[in-house]
Amino acid sequence: MSDSFFSLPPPLLSAPSDAIAFYRNTAPITYVMLRADIAAARQALARLDAPEVVLHDGEAYVFLVWLMACWMNGQTALLAADDLPATRAHLQYPWVGRCEGNALTVWSNDERKAFPGSPLPFDCPGMVVFTSGSSGMPNRIFKKPELLYREAELLQQAFGSAFPPDTRFVGTVPHQHMFGLPYRLIWPLWAGYPIISEPFRYPEELGRLTAGAHVLISSPPTLKRLAQLETFSSPATFLATFSAGSPLDGSVAAACAARLSTKMIENYGSSETASVMQRIFPDGAWKELPGVTLALNECGCLKMRSPLLGTDDWFQTQDTAVCDENGWRLTGRADRVAKIEGRRIALDAIETVLLALPEVAEARVAPLYRERDEIVAAVVLSDIGCAQLQALGKSRFDRKMRQSLSTTIDRVALPRRWRYLSTLPYNAMGKIMSADIVRLFERQALPPRAAISRSAQEVVLTLALRDCLYAFDGHFPELPILPGVIQIDWALRLAQRCFPIEGRFSGLRQLRFQRILRPDDEVTLTLRFSPEKKEVRFSYASKWGEHSQGCAFFTNATAASEAIR
Amino acid sequence: MTDLIDEIKTLIIETLNLEDVTVADIDTDAPLFVEGLGLDSIDALELGVALHKRYGLTLSDEAEETKEHFASVRHLADFVAAHRNR
Prior knowledge:
Chain A has 565 residues and is of the alpha/beta class. Chain A is built from 13 helices and 29 strands. The longest helix of chain A has 18 residues, at 31-48.
């Protein structure tokens, strides 16, 4: 290992003063400005007189200035993933960055001065990141700057030859995580590529990049939506797009590759391990970074040795994998940690918080992977909880439960669906299987549908019965027919999604079932709302004619008498 | 405008597949994110795509401005009414 690893990214010391380090709202920031800002930030940080500080700033440029200043001062930077009250309470150090209540929000422009090119203090611990451990408590991971620089060097060796020096790095992922930080900031800084400071949260925003070569740092949640946009154009050229956080679907990768004319590269890694291996779509095999050795433990979980671990020991993951003639294939996780839209979520942590609520007697949460990844919760309520559910109704009670969790749990991990049960679904072994929890939520799904026409009082929908086979389950084994109660349930629930119906459902009339509905029927559902009469007429029809129809009426009722649906 | 407000509420419920939430449940002036409906950053992405598809809208460059549009259903309806092209 050469001494340079303990120094600064080379361009900070050697790039010409007028070379461009960053773009901030398309305005270039040169190295002379970056160096001066780091010098000023060092002064401000030194006055805090704290060996450890928490960094949290939404802008990549400002964040990087603080980070470099911390390291040069020998201060450890703790990277907070969010600024939830629970996170602030947990991290009792001075908070730095533009956020209300922080100990230090800005550096002084009066202290911008020449940059001392001193090497980093040898014993600088560098940086601490937090990640969901399987115990539910966040794990603290120390990272020395040298490991981040080494990762940058390996990435540059593996991919950099395709990127000319003026290639701009742009990201849709946060810069304070262990994918965004190394890929969006440290790699381009180390290799001297200009960095676009602001985050591009929405995929269509990429259309406002200027012409020129770019490398895009993104993740499946954004890429999935980029693939769905009807129109997209950007003057920018995307030489490569890196994705990490969760598995990238092949069809999404193909759609994005075509849309951006880019090379799609998926990275596998974690906060603990940094980058491990990459593959290039459409059909590239996973290729380990130089120096990485992979193996499986007796449970089929991947373990590795890597120059980016900072130790020669094996690191054991909870990711399950297989290795065949096509190379490595990742198959899932072995522990109670779920991946929700790319974020690692400890299920035990959510359950611990739920169980501490007075409303809850028992609780189990599970990930549900459908159109979007989400957490769902099955809960046995206490007497207090039952009374509140009665009083508020399910919708408002659901929302109250989410609110109660929102000061401690990452918003993306808040349960989006709730079932209140008299007992949890224990199996014969006395265990609760995740699949049994998930089944509670699949049963009540509405059918996939599309609106043909809609106005304030009438909506016409086509329903895809074929994709809703659970509704035909057991009714009947030889001859699947859509049950009448399900037809009524769908009509009522869809009507409440389409019209501002006040009051509660109080009855049905003129109900007629004329023709059976089979899974292959192409059926349309027409809903007509009459606000004056407080009623909704529904009819299911297909090319065979009308299948069923009816009229549901509603009455105003006080919340107290509202039945539990 | 009332029609557009109800239409946007339906769009939100349908796009995000919110369970047990009806049009009547959504307060026109309550915040959509954090408090109120309590939507998250992934919901914002999903809504962005839906607004793009239905109304031809492109969410603004300025994060602050986007935040304002998402402040409530009423804000969103104003934004849609002013900028829609389908």
